[in-house]
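Quick one, tokens below. Sequence please?
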């Protein structure tokens, strides 16, 4: 890749950036894309265009390379081969591919969960300096769910016993995961009846890899059911452990304020960015940037201080607990480098484009990879372990500070002002805002002030105009008195759009506005990172239990308007398998099997009480969701309106 430094800004760039209106709805995105073009920096959009047209067989899920008798393809037009070399037909090939997609997503979240459980264990052994138990009360509550007697035991002993019990969850000897007991009894019975109660977290993923090996599970229906079990092992297993242990170690989020977009970078400070998903590293960086000697060093280097900001979900984790500003979501991760104002980006894992190291080389930015399992081209690898994390974090922050003098002030381009937001809505915080119980929410639902609630979640994808799906859908929902809970990159998009300040209640429908104003909350609640989607499951379970119904009876829905990742596929499936209708914006590679399509979009209703819908247009997705919510309200005997 070439770099061609330019020193141009202001008006001219903003005119020039108009051509990027089809790429992103965000002002900072458009301006940074224009800047990247001037600098001849290639971005994810350029590479996407270079891939067009993408392979039709793969888009439909009809290609298989699960063994070396292949690779094989099935002709969707019925003229060419209809079976792979082994005899697998379209249904088998598509479902096997889909199953492996779920396995990868579930594995990613769950392995992230495992890393946190390991830190918890090390803390209990006194081998993780810098880490501590920040929410001992939550730890005790969770420990009792695992059947651990906490009476008279000290905190570290409980931590050790809990970490060991959690490690058991990954194994193969159980009949069901502990935390499924948070789901309503009827839902658990459905899972049992279908034979999809998630057992060991690793077991379900491993079994999916086994089943999809040539010559194992060749029944697309049974494979789909196992995919649901595999996804449930993520939602009620790996991801749930990740969230709970993060709260235990770093504190359970409470409402707080911060700022967002590329304007959070500061021209006169050392800018350090954390990117990835796991708070294990970023929390240590957060501690290090508070150290007086390092702040002092920054001043000696001519900076006013150290500015730590986040990207993607590790950013969401720090935002939720520490109020650290967010620079952007998935499609902004390359563009943030183009500001020329970043001294260091530290990455852990997931959603980190392998292109970042190369772009950083066009600037003075240092790129550091930190996880033993995630390495990237043109990044320096400095491995974090619980034992060395505190010290290494200090070393790296020092290096970032020293790098400030290498910044070329003439190339710095931070063209926008940040937007305010409120975050920190854990289930505990939501219940507290409601006065300690879900009753006020239930009353508002019954009265029709709030018609229902929707989780708007998931990624960005260059196939969809950046942030357009999230923001359009969310706006329509809140305008129609539907409370939105969001996570991940969707949460970043909605915050940038200004939906996350209490004053945003003014754009909500009259009922939702009244409720938000009374509670002093925004109409769109930031629930956290992508593993934190489980907070929505827990809340849904609590609501269902309070009303003595199943989750599938509630006026709820899920949406992932711009999803790209295998993790998002796993989320969508565990949400559906938990009984929540979900509308996704990008088409998953399953259209090659109309049998599978019919199963997930129609027949799952009779099996799991919820289906998946695909609707790329967020306006239409909003209508689908509103109709669904009114249907569920009718089922509960609540007043309905015509949609
Ligand atoms: Fe990644 Fe979590 Fe998707 Fe964003 S939303 S692109 S998965 S960072 Ni998780
Ligand atoms: Fe082809 Fe069957 Fe091998 Fe897949 S598993 S590559 S369809 S022979």
């Amino acid at each position: 890749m070439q770099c061609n430094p330019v020193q141009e800004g202001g008006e001219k760039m903003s005119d020039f950036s108009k051509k990027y209106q089809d790429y992103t709805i965000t002002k900072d995105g458009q301006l940074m894309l224009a800047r990247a073009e001037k600098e001849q920096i290639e971005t994810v959009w350029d590479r996407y265009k270079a891939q067009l047209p993408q392979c039709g067989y793969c888009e439909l899920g009809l290609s298989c390379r699960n063994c070396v008798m292949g690779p094989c393809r099935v002709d969707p037009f019925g003229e060419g081969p209809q079976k792979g070399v082994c005899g697998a037909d379209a249904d088998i090939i598509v479902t096997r591919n889909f199953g492996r997609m779920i396995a990868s997503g579930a594995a990613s979240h769950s392995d992230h969960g495992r890393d946190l459980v390991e830190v918890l264990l090390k803390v209990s052994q006194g081998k993780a300096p810098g880490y501590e138990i920040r929410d001992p009360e939550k730890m005790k509550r969770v420990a009792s769910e695992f059947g651990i007697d906490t009476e008279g035991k000290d905190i570290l002993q409980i931590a050790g016993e809990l970490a060991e019990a959690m490690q058991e969850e990954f194994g193969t000897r159980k009949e069901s995961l502990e935390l499924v007991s948070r789901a309503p009894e009827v839902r658990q019975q459905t899972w049992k009846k279908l034979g999809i109660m998630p057992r060991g977290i690793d077991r379900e993923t491993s079994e999916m890899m086994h089943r999809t090996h040539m010559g194992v599970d060749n029944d697309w229906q049974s494979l789909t059911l196992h995919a649901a079990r595999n996804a449930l092992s993520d939602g009620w297993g790996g991801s749930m452990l990740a969230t709970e242990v993060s709260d235990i170690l770093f504190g359970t989020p409470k409402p707080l304020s911060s700022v967002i977009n590329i304007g959070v970078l500061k021209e006169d400070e050392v800018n350090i960015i954390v990117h990835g998903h796991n708070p294990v590293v970023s929390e240590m960086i957060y501690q290090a940037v508070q150290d007086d000697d390092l702040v002092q060093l920054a001043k000696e280097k001519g900076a006013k201080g150290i500015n730590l900001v986040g990207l993607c979900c590790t950013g969401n984790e720090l935002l939720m607990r520490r109020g650290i500003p967010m620079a952007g979501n998935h499609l902004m991760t390359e563009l943030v480098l183009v500001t020329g104002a970043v001294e260091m980006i530290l990455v852990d894992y997931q959603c980190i484009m392998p292109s970042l190291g190369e772009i950083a080389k066009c600037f003075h930015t240092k790129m550091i990879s930190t996880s033993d399992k995630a390495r990237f081209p043109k990044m320096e690898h400095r491995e974090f372990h619980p034992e060395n994390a505190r010290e290494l974090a200090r070393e790296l922050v020092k290096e970032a500070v020293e790098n400030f003098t290498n910044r070329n002030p003439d190339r710095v381009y931070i063209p926008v002002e940040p937007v305010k937001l409120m975050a920190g809505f854990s289930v505990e915080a939501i219940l507290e805002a409601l006065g300690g119980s879900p009753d006020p929410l239930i009353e508002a639902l019954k009265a029709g002030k709030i018609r229902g609630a929707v989780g708007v979640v998931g990624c960005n994808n260059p196939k969809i105009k950046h942030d357009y799906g999230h923001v359009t859908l969310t706006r329509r929902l809140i305008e129609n008195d539907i409370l939105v809970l969001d996570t991940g990159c969707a949460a970043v998009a909605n915050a940038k759009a200004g939906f996350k300040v209490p004053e945003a209640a003014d754009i909500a429908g009259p009922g939702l506005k009244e409720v938000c104003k009374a509670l002093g909350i925004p109409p769109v609640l930031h629930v956290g990172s992508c593993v934190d989607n489980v907070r929505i499951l827990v809340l849904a379970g609590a609501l269902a239990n309070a009303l003595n119904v199943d989750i599938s009876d509630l006026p709820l829905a899920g949406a992932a308007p711009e999803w790209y990742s295998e993790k998002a596929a796993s989320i969508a499936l565990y949400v559906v398998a938990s009984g929540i209708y979900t509308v996704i914006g990008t088409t998953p590679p399953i259209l090659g099997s109309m049998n599978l399509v019919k199963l997930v979009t129609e027949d799952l209703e009779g099996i799991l009480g919820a289906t998946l819908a695909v609707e790329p247009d967020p306006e239409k997705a909003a209508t689908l969701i509103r109709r669904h919510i009114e249907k569920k309200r009718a089922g509960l005997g609540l007043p309905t309106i015509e949609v």
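The mean pLDDT is 97. Residues 243 and 532 are 6 Å apart (CA to CA).
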